[in-house]
Amino acid sequence: MRVRGGLTRRIYMENGFRPPIEGQQPLTDPELATLGRAVLAALAQADLAPLLARHEAGVAIGHPRDVFDILAPDMTPLAQEQLRVLTLNTRHRVLGNHLVYQGTVSEAPVRVAEVLRPAIIQQSPKIIVAHNHPSGDPSPSPDDHHLTTQLVEAAKLMGITILDHIIIAGDTFASCRERGLMPVDQVARLRVSDDATSPYDVFRSH
User: Fold this and answer.
1) Which of 3, 149, 158, 168 is most deeply buried (CB count within 10 A of its CB)?
2) What are the angstrom distances between the C-alpha of 126 and each of 12, 122, 151, 152, 194?
3) How far apart are CA 27 and CA 13, in angstroms?
4) What is the DSSP letter of 153?
5) Rounded Cα distance, 56 and 86, in Å
């Protein structure tokens, strides 16, 4: 996602923050608190009409490839940007597949509150965010990295864990967690082990 136009820029602008520049320092604690209050206020005023969701009941997410397999049929052929959220239970089983945004590449009227809204409504403790790159290159941009960080921090204020941010492009994908672009929770850092079979294992409740 580019700083000029596109999904990432609009998410920042809609929440009163300037789009990040590569190398720029992350938001300060007061700024994160302001963002969190904005998210909560938007959710409190949100229309709780049913969200567009398709349930893959019982499907367990153990690897980024599982996310790709669920979303690729809908997102791979798109010539426009789309953002989806998979809501999960504590054992990483899918509760819902939510279309949060769909539009042209240059227009993306999405706010952080809208990304987190499905989790609030479904009382989902964990989510995976995914969007597509119509360019065909799944490599996370600096804007994608900054956006991921801000979503994680905002979700943390509401007790929601974002397991990953998946970028789909054609027949391939990129996982921000596998590429080391996700903020690492201190508890997760202490629990991670060499015998973990999935990048999400450390967050799973048994």
Assistant:
1) 168
2) 22, 11, 13, 11, 23
3) 14
4) H
5) 10
